[in-house]
Amino acid sequence: MSFLKPLARNSTHWSHVRSLATASTRPAKDCTRITPPYPKLVANLEKVKRVLDHRPMTLSEKILYSHLTEPEEVKPIRGQTYLKLSPDRVAMQDASAQMAILQFMLAGMPTTAVPSSIHCDHLIVGHKGADQDLVNSIENNKEIFNFLQSAAEKYGMAFWKPGSGIIHQIVLENYAAPGLLMLGTDSHTPNAGGLGAIAIGVGGADAVDAMANIPWELKAPEVIGIKLTGKLNGWTSPKDVILHLAGKLTVRGGTGHIIEYFGPGIDTLSCTGMGTICNMGAEVGATTSLFPFVNSMSSYLHATGRGPVAEAARQHAHFLKADEGAVYDKVIEINLSTLEPHINGPFTPDLATPLSKFADVVKKNGWKDEVKVGLIGSCTNSSYEDMDRVTSLAKQALEKGIKSKAGFFITPGSEQIRATIERDGQTAVLEKVGGVVLANACGPCIGQWTRDDLNDKEENAILTSFNRNFKNRNDGNAKTMNFLTSPELVTAMSLSGKLSFNPLTDPLVDASGEEFMLQPPYGDNLPKDGFIPGNLSYTPPDASQPNPSIEISVDPKSTRLQVLEPFGPGPEGEFTNLEVLLKVKGKCTTDHISAAGPWLKYKGHLENISHNTLNGALNADNDKVNVVSNVFTGEEGAIHEVGRDYQKRGKPWIVVTDHNYGEGSAREHAALQMRYLGCPMILARSFARIHQTNLKKQGVLPLTFADPADWERIHGGDVIESTVGVADLVAGRPGKNDTAEGGEITLVVRRANGEKFEIKALHTMSKDQIEWFKKGSALNAARG
Ligand code: SF4
Fold first, then answer.
1. Which of 237, 594, 665, 777 is catalytic?
2. Ligand 1 site: residues with CB under 6 angstroms?
3. Across 13-22, 576-585, 699-708, least confident range
4. Smallest Cα–Cα separation from 469: which of 623, 665, 204?
5. Nearest residue CA, atom 1 of ligand 1?
6. Which ligand 1 atom sits closest to the C-alpha of 168?
7. What is the pTM of this model?
């Protein structure tokens, strides 16, 4: 089977479906497979209500608990109880889908238990523009795309081929629905919360659970309520809600929580604006973010051909909002009327600066007052509303005879958006002002960006409407300062070319040298003439059927795909003589553990991608990145090389890490690679939720310091001579000091000079997770 070449982007016209007289509506499609099973969910919830003595519930609780596999089995307590859930749907992007499917193949099932979709978006490199970039990327990745397409056909998954769009925008346009519970193998899956779904970013192994009909486990999250009042105005946009909130909560503040929005301000937001807010909730570590069912969701569902979903949701509107009197674990109020536009960064999404203060920050830091490139779009901000509003700014510039001073790139989130803004004229305006339209794919957001505008690794500033801005993320240059802001501000500041520009107070200069002020952006939420789908060949059938006769071939000589071998079982008793390979200092995201960019091409080849393991980690003992001492040879080497050497010597090793280890992307490779290279345990000050679960799924024991100050006492080169408590854990015996949330493990540490001391550590392993650990991985446990 060979992968189809893309059609020319303008080759298909929306000729057989016209917009209805009512603006922004579209004929309904068959919604049978995409409408949540509301009657069943409501019936389940009735059972849970009885268990909870009819106390009022938040919306997050109502949706989650209505998806319990056994609604009467447990009494859910937020922050404590492990829930066993039945998700309704799975979505996977091309980079993470490879490993998810390689794992699903090990399960030996004929089809997926729930509707699942694959989206080819991460492997497309942005460079010259959509048409050329797409052809080049398909050529360079055809082995992967062929593999994914053949797996989709074999197992009956929907396959969204390269050029169709970015996973979260496609999900919002096609699959998200109020009350849905879905899993996505990407950390910005919560985008679907803008349409009232609980959508959670997970690793491939969790997706395999849902696809294989294994109950999916989640500790009942606590709920942060965000009360929105007032109405956005002027230059402020939905993005500013989450930029502001990121500053308040920090990258760890949402961990273990669902962020649930409520209050009268919600009724003033568009559905896609709420999607933007939920999308970036991933940046504060939240399990997901969620809005209740409101009119703008209904309008969006109708506009995207899903009127029957809107009607079914209306009939169950009571289920799709928080109960009167529901109690949140914490409440933050945001007045939209007084909210300022924000700029967050560089290098972390929670470094939030209100626009009015940003010029001072630029000056204080001595940054060059130049915006080198502005990038708009991505899964976070490429709605029709976003594009229409930035176009209103571009038009003002063109009327005054000026163009963007900075490089300016536009990434449409989907073929539907691309085609619709081309028809409605926004694309022509944006191109005229200097914009280059990239493919409907991730591109510069995930390091798939070839820049021609920089001399070698020079310091420079870019502004993006994306969601994430860790160092190196966009272009692989650690000196690129990446700031997150709304598409409107990206556009205004790109027009000025200045990093200190504030469109509320600073004029631009027109072609004749006269100053003028940009007027605040404006635009339609939804296209008056309805959406058009563009190239119809991008849209897979609604109900893809499995075809068992399809062979999924993986070339044993491939450098990009490698069939997986199951991991061996975990320990039968205590661990002994674990080498401390490395102590990590500071931020260690999944980008630091398993970098993206050039490594994306090895996502389906565990051995090859493991060469990047922890290559961004800062060694606390020598202050060097990706350099550790090999205690057996006395030589320094890259972390993966030394880890591999220990493994060959039969010496299991661990790493000691700082706070929020594994924050950022959901990438499970960060867990798989550690296990593959021989690491059975990680000792951290704290973990990011998704990564902690990913480690457990792969048979790695995540432990946290009982006293975080003990991080100072242990170093690379030390040896965990023995553990006390692991034997009880695997034997299912209650250990000393066990609680409902986990238990205590004692580590006996030996220094090179013979000195010994003990460190108390904590685990959060549930009964099922202990089984994964014993069997060597969750998949081993599932296979029995
Ligand atoms: Fe793609 Fe960036 Fe969105 Fe991730 S955050 S799905 S890389 S556009």
1. 665
2. 121-122, 166-168, 186, 188, 378-379, 442, 445-446, 466-468
3. 13-22
4. 665
5. 442
6. 6
7. 0.84
